[in-house]
Amino acid sequence: MDLFWLQGYAATTPQELAGQMGIGKGSLYNTFGSKHDLFLRALRRYTEMRLEYLADLFAAPGPVGPRLETAMAVLAGVGEHRRGCVMVNAAAELGTVDDEVNRIADELFTRIEGIFRVAIEQGQRSGEFGADRPADISARQLLASVIGLSVLVKSGGRPESCTTVVEGCVGGL
């Protein structure tokens, strides 16, 4: 996953993948079928990891706002690295030609939006957020902001600027 995340799908060779895993190229094909099959497995694993992270984050007690800010920053990679989000990268690279990548990306994005919606509804019930805007619309806006921030992070956007965007998005709730 890290190699695909760093280099993208097209730039990552089967030889590099085999070397990264410490196996022969033949073993790579015998185990995973193809580079594409391995890539899809990596995207599914990334999806699982992100959803597990969000479930743990939002299961914690306390105000919702800071947890939404943390979620947005982590999902986009703000201040952590310059890779952006592997799923955003995959969708940008292969979205026009790979329906399976689109399906996996859509599944993750839909689930993140749902998690954001539930968190926003919780914040609205507690009075932390205003209830004048539907939570589903706000959740969709936060997701779109995460996707945009991921691109900014990958292109070298300053962490301070990205953090300001995160704070403004959640503060506007």
TrEMBL record:
**Where along the sequence lies the DNA-binding region?**
13-32
Q: Which UniProt keywords apply?
A: DNA-binding, Transcription, Transcription regulation
Annotated PROSITE patterns: HTH_TETR_2
Instruction: Report whether Ribonucleoprotein shows up as a keyword of the record.
Output: no
Q: Supply one GO molecular-function term.
A: DNA binding
Keyword Kinase annotated: no
Per its UniProt entry, which superkingdom is the organism in? Bacteria
Organism of this sequence: Rhodococcus wratislaviensis (Tsukamurella wratislaviensis)
HTH tetR-type domain location: 1-50
Pfam name, any one = TetR_C_13
Task: Tell me the protein's name.
Answer: Transcriptional regulator, TetR family
Q: By its UniProt entry, which Gene3D superfamilies does this protein fall under?
A: Homeodomain-like (1.10.10.60), Tetracycline Repressor, domain 2 (1.10.357.10)
